[in-house]
Specification:
Elements (H helix, E strand, L loop, with lengths): L2 H29 L5 H11 L13 H22 L7 H25 L8 H26 L1
Helix pairs in contact: 1-3, 1-5, 2-3, 4-5
Length: 149
Amino acid sequence: MEQDILFAVALGTVAATTLMTIFSHIVSRLRNREFTEPVLLNRFLCGFGILKEYQLKKSIAGWIIHYCVGLLFLLSYYFIWSSPLADPTLTTALVLGSVSGLVGIAGWAVLFRLQSIPANLIVAEYYAQLFVAHLIFALTATVTFRLVA
């Protein structure tokens, strides 16, 4: 990858994942539920015995996992944009965001099958906000990529 593309992917990952997470945090506050992905990831790490309960709010592990997943999504977007299939446009952002939302929901569904669902989490509500969060991710990634690459 050329340096400008590498920079665009890195910046797009940070911008898109951050805005997605801010959206999830806002919805968490409004709905009085925990939808923030890094916090939920830390809960799963506690459940798997990787983190201790007292580390739940302080550990950066969930954040690292969340940004790494964001990088994987953005790399897949880049390869799609680099192919003759699509350019980074509003239409492809909405398609990629929708597909990413469905992939994200599937991933969380697997995690929820491996461990119990947090007590105050309404799964359908979480999935709805997660789908919108991925649309925000894809739109932010697309705009960032177009501005920087």
